[in-house]
Amino acid sequence: MERKYLNIAQQISEKFDEIPIHWDGRKAILEMKDANFPHWRQMEWIGWYFQFLCGKLLKDGVKIPGPKYGNLEFDGFKEIPWDFKAHATNTSSHQIIVNDSEATAKATTEFGCVGLILAMGEVKYNDDERTFQKWHEELKGGKSEYELERIKRGAWSRLRKVEFRLEQISFIKIDDSVLVKCGSFQRDFRNSNGMPRREKVLVDLEKLDEEIVFLLDFQNRFSK
Description:
The protein has 224 residues and is of the alpha+beta class. Helix content is 32%, strand content 27%.
């Protein structure tokens, strides 16, 4: 059975031969905007840009988007549902917020497991004067409702990520055993309107071993 998931991951991995190594925030956002990708306005652009790249690179071998459970859908499907995520290696956190817990549980029941395609690399901020943040806000036509609400609350504004250098892409199998040992995120959280937030799967990379079925290493490749 493990060989099956290894083969699937290897087949998908071949599509990443042309993925860029260095992601510049301004160029990535403009690329998404020009392609009418609906999430180009998002502050956490790195994860959305990886999803955007997956949509372009994997479209001939992976069904995009994947199956839908209620209002939640997976990013892709090849034998099992897959989600596409990105995470910084130069951070103290080893936890990845994945998909909706209920949708993941239903998909796991139906297919035996779900998959996570995780791009990892070094993030650079270098935005002490908020030039990138100001540029992005101007491109969007002003501050977002989220940002206006943050200002109203007096909450601290985070520095924006301005660059990402891809180091590896991991293919991770998430089954019932992973769900048990990794936990969840947003449990008992509520939205600003008082409605409860949907619980999400929280994957702890430090607790994974054989669940990482395949890995692409980009650290020795030249930038494109």
